[in-house]
What we know:
CATH topology of the largest domain: Aldehyde Dehydrogenase, Chain A, domain 1
Shape: globular
Structural class: alpha/beta
Strand order of the largest sheet: 13-16-17-12-11-18-19
Helix content: 25-40%
CATH superfamily of the largest domain: Aldehyde Dehydrogenase, Chain A, domain 1
Number of helices: 16
CATH class of the largest domain: Alpha Beta
Radius of gyration: 24 Å
Distance between the termini: 66 Å
Amino acid sequence: xxxxxxxxxxxxxxxxxxxxxxxxxxxxxxxxxxxxxxxxxxxxxxxxxxxxxxxxxxxxxxxxxxxxxxxxxxxxxxxxxxxxxxxxxxxxxxxxxxxxxxxxxxxxxxxxxxxxxxxxxxxxxxxxxxxxxxxxxxxxxxxxxxxxxxxxxxxxxxxxxxxxxxxxxxxxxxxxxxxxxxxxxxxxxxxxxxxxxxxxxxxxxxxxxxxxxxxxxxxxxxxxxxxxxxxxxxxxxxxxxxxxxxxxxxxxxxxxxxxxxxxxxxxxxxxxxxxxxxxxxxxxxxxxxxxxxxxxxxxxxxxxxxxxxxxxxxxxxxxxxxxxxxxxxxxxxxxxxxxxxxxxxxxxxxxxxxxxxxxxxxxxxxxxxxxxxxxxxxxxxxxxxxxxxxxxxxxxxxxxxxxxxxxxxxxxxxxxxxxxxxxxxxxxxxxxxxxxxxxxxxxxxxxxxxxxxxxxxxxxxxxxxxxxxxxxxxxxxxxxxxxxxxxxxxxxxxxxxxxx
Length: 500
């Protein structure tokens, strides 16, 4: 499958979105400049591919501010206004967010791909739609009450105020949608320091969101951002006195900074999800689902499969199933060439390396072409390696999947625990042995553990449950949602209000 839409398809998307955005709720052209459907002006930004792409509106408009202090001040005003509104109004605001993002899911996916160069447009569309439909809203904020001889106690979920939010370049638009729905559902405002590599699409998206919120009767500036996000502005955000709490989705370095900030931090850090396949597994299913998961959006999502441990007696059959589903195996004699191509720092055995940024999120076919293999439609590069190879220990964030043979399932589980580094993020296993599945689930101790399916099922994509793009394993919250972004308040009335 191609990694880019054709020019004709892109033009059709833009025209369709512009048509949708230019209509009011009754289907007639909207005359209000603040309509949910209005688009920020200045269609002049040129993306990576050289095509005209919508650019955000003027600085200081719809949440985008020239400096961090202005963004924080505006978000504080937005929060105070939201705090006077009802839960029913929050529900309306979230519905407006879902609507405007649904109308722009394709456009935002294409803009993100053009600006960052990462992943696949068609998969980014699916990520956007996933978070639009399966991110919990205000309905998740259910109160608790106790009554007894001594009266009534009520527990409710209250907002924190203004969040400082860090988002990645790997999943820029889906993370913003997911975070925005959860934060506003909980009654908060947020200042975003987006990844500099995705600043244009993120600013455009935040402006769309703010316009939708205002058009639905909400306050302006619930979601703000500085015009030029940098590492320095991220650090300043973490220390800013106007920020009550942090929500960080990114790599290990930014997580460490957030956790050392002195503020409470909800941190979604790195992962290196292992897959164990034993001799009882449905190998056709395993091969299909591993390729699907590890190749989705070119493996830039932290939750996706990063290495496979296959029991020796079924390894060849598993590889055959993977090759039948879009993987291309790299010959062993090309392994050294692959290492030179994708590693910036190649470490010793059982150590974590550093990948070259220019290959992160690139198509498998492009990687193979550099290695002299013509397979433009390949979804995944499969490479068999020994268990001590650095590919096993390194989060590649590209469609290159190392597979190592193990003697038995117990060795596979032990090695999976080592390869996961204690991140506590995600892992999976294909097996019909309930004892083995239970043993790995306990040993790996991850926020997400998937049995007999792709890791994306753990996000509700092909599986049950709600979704999240911020998996807060380092700080223990797991899959974040509106409840995560609230604090617990208790109110007690003594000796009254019991009705029985």
